[in-house]
């Protein structure tokens, strides 16, 4: 595998990739006030920080995949419209639009030797082995993408992937390979191909509903390039389609993970923290861009990942406020609800301290994006669009009236949203739709914790529009990459981690379990 030039910290270069479109732009932008009103409806206030069983948990997706998804995002994209400080007339990507782990490798040991040991094959980490390598003066991580130090969990996923690479180098040495450059390139191929398979066969399997996942997987196996209805291998006015990332993926579909964020996490037997506490560089939250506090070390990865794809069928125990025992924490459900810490992002992420929901909705509304509506995507895929009775947000019921949640229409933000829905919201509403069917089957009574911890209310996954966009884009970028495992791996290649294609197996191989 050749060394791929990379600017891990997002400096514009001739490599800048224009984003492409899956569908024609939305001709009629939404009003900012309407988008703000919709964003406000999406925030669910909750003053509890449960680190035991929690009714908000999605029993299909362990919590670690929220941050594995963030890691994948940073590998694929650096969106130049992430800043709202000035108008944008173009949308572009400053990352290589492929699953090539340039966020780990940078531009390689020849161009960025300060990231590598003297052997030219091993990546450097903090000498104690518990943190990333950092600049001594300001504590910033010296890595391929500075965003992978954004919080204490994604920081440790970055560290785990570096340790995985180093473990592969050690295994190759044990097998007799010694020439530094060949050793590095061989290890990089092994790690990158394994990672690509994990994205397709572990991560997406958990995120996308079974019907959509199996349908596209079988369709691609039988039809090849003709399986793609959206992400086609054709030239467009914005450039070649497959190989560049779509605006709809960057600006909407792949932002589904924001709904999976918990208010906070337990990292070890003594530490549980809010994801944000409204400030930067605070030991009272998981905000990063500083040396990893010793109290933030994950003591057991079983708190965030699981070795197999299993959805519990039994009711979970009642929420526990302080549960230091090792217990798998699940991501929150994929639905149009965001936890309240995301209502005002910390300064290091957004200087305006704005709502993440509002930022997402307005990004897709910028002229540079003008993303088509969810209904337009449903029509393109020949799927029945969501009706007004499926475009709803949660509404809390006061405790003195029994507590719990019912649902209300988003028409109060703007009646137009009931027939023309921003794609990001539409995708989240798709994942929530089965719960609304259940809610109506019980005469629209207030749903209680028990309704969210068993049956249809216990899980949520992407539906036919959101799931299909992810399946087409991720499979498409792997199919289009001549260096991917599908195009370059020798016949019969089996990853060093074995036949268990999962992030858990990576952690095990890296010696972290």
Protein model, in words:
The protein has helices at 32-42, 64-76, 102-105, 152-174, 180-207, 210-223, 247-251, 356-365, 374-380, 423-441, 449-452, 466-480, 485-488, 503-509, and strands at residues 17-18, 43-44, 57-62, 92-93, 235-236, 239-240, 264-266, 272-274, 330-332, 338-339, 392-396, 405-409. With 513 residues, it is mainly alpha-helical. The strands form six sheets. The protein has a two-stranded antiparallel sheet. Strands 2-10 form a two-stranded parallel sheet. A two-stranded antiparallel sheet has the order 3-9. The protein is globular and about 65 Å long. It starts with 16 loop residues before the first strand and ends with a helix.
Q: What topology, given as strand order, has the largest sheet?
A: 1-4
Main β sheet profile:
2 strands, antiparallel
Instruction: Write down the overall geometry.
Output: globular
CATH class descriptor: Mainly Alpha
What is the CATH architecture assignment?
A: Orthogonal Bundle
Tell me roughly what share of residues is in helical segments.
25-40%
What portion of residues belong to β-strands? 5-15%
Order of secondary-structure elements: EHEEHEHHHHEEHEEEEHHEEHHHHH
Structural class by SSE content: mainly alpha
Tally of strands: 12
The fold-level CATH name is: Myeloperoxidase, subunit C
Total domain count = 1
Given the structure, what is the number of helices? 14
Oligomer: single chain
CATH superfamily grouping = Haem peroxidase domain superfamily, animal type
Low-confidence stretches: 1-14, 80-90, 313-319
If you compute it from the alpha carbons, what radius of gyration comes out, rounded to the nearest whole angstrom? 22 Å
Mean residue pLDDT: 88
State the end-to-end CA separation.
Answer: 30 Å
